[in-house]
Amino acid sequence: MPTPTKGFADVNGARLYYESGGEGSPVVFVHAGLADSGMWDGQFEAFTAHCRAIRYDMRGFGQSVPVKGDYSHAGDLAGLLKFLGVRQASLVGCSQGGSVILDFALDNPAAAAALVLVSTSPVGLELDMPASPEFADLQAALLTNDWTAFLELSARIWFDGRGRTPDQVDPLARKRLVGMYLRRLQLTRADPGKEKPVPDPPAADRLDELNLPTLIVTGDRDLEFVHAAAAYMAEHIAGAQAVVLPNAAHMLNMEHPTEFNQLVLDFLSHVP
Predict the structure, then answer these.
(1) Does residue 248 have a pLDDT over 70?
(2) For the segment 161-189, what is each residue's pLDDT rounded down to a tens digit?
């Protein structure tokens, strides 16, 4: 098996850090908005044994520093695949990364072979649900620049999940997530650039245009609005499969890499 390659791709005025390894049909991993490509440590090597696995840091995350100017993450993904010579790929995205691959697939239908939407809500989805009370505390910490409290509250919401305490989750994985989010916050103290406006109509109103194998994965400990978003996508994406992993929250692939990998590999094995 070839040694994985690492490098930077010049894409739309940004330098995106990426890793690529393995051979076969490409599978691209797109990280969550409070992480970077390191969140896929439990997947990357395992998938290189079955396919060409690609992961990267979106601009403003990890090793991809932010740059001034307008951009879209979906446009950056298209540019990265062109740089790597990938015409079509299966796409795995978590949270914000799931929103990115949805936008990408809608704009580039021939380039998307399959979608795995992890803890995802499509852009433009409006749900008539009360906000989780944890977000008020999170906003208060943000307004007072209490970054220690902000990071801890973020970990409680997104890693611990509902009904669990920090001592009930993997402490090393939790620490890794906090470290990635801290890096994100440090990067955005500089000019992070300006993400282009949400397309009109947004992805939430265009899901019926998708015609490709789709797997929707949520953790049973995740927030109610994430489960509601998963149900909405399952209803509006033709043929979509939905799975709920037990004892898992938002970052479920970091919590249960073995179960997650098997689930996704089994799904992708049936993609034409």
Answers:
(1) yes
(2) 999 999 999 999 999 999 999 999 888 77
Q: Which is nearest to 103 in space by CA: 184, 218, 86, 112? A: 112
Give the chain's count of helices (H) and strands (E): 9, 10
> Which tokens belong to 164?
């669990």
Question: Residues 26-43: what's their mean pLDDT?
Answer: 98
13: how many CB neighbours lie within 10 A of its CB?
14
Distances (CA, A) of 65 to 12, 68, 74, 88, 262: 13, 10, 17, 26, 33
Helix (H, G, I), strand (E, B) or coil at 169: coil
At residue 68, the pLDDT reads: 82
> Which one-letter DSSP state was computed for residue 158?
I
**pLDDT tens across 221-230, in order?**
999 999 999 9
| Both structure tokens of 180 | 């990635």
CATH of domain 5-126+190-268: 3.40.50.1820
Q: How confident is the model at residue 194 (pLDDT cuts 50, 70, 90)?
A: confident
C-alpha separations of 91 from 50, 109, 165, 259 in Å: 15, 12, 32, 18
Summarize the chain as % helix, strand, coil (round to 5).
45, 20, 35
Whole-model pTM: value is 0.96
Q: Look at the block and give the residue holding tokens 């009109």.
A: 200
- The residues pairing with 158 across neighbouring beta strands, listed in sequence order, are none
- How far is it, in rounded angstroms, from Cα 26 to Cα 194? 30
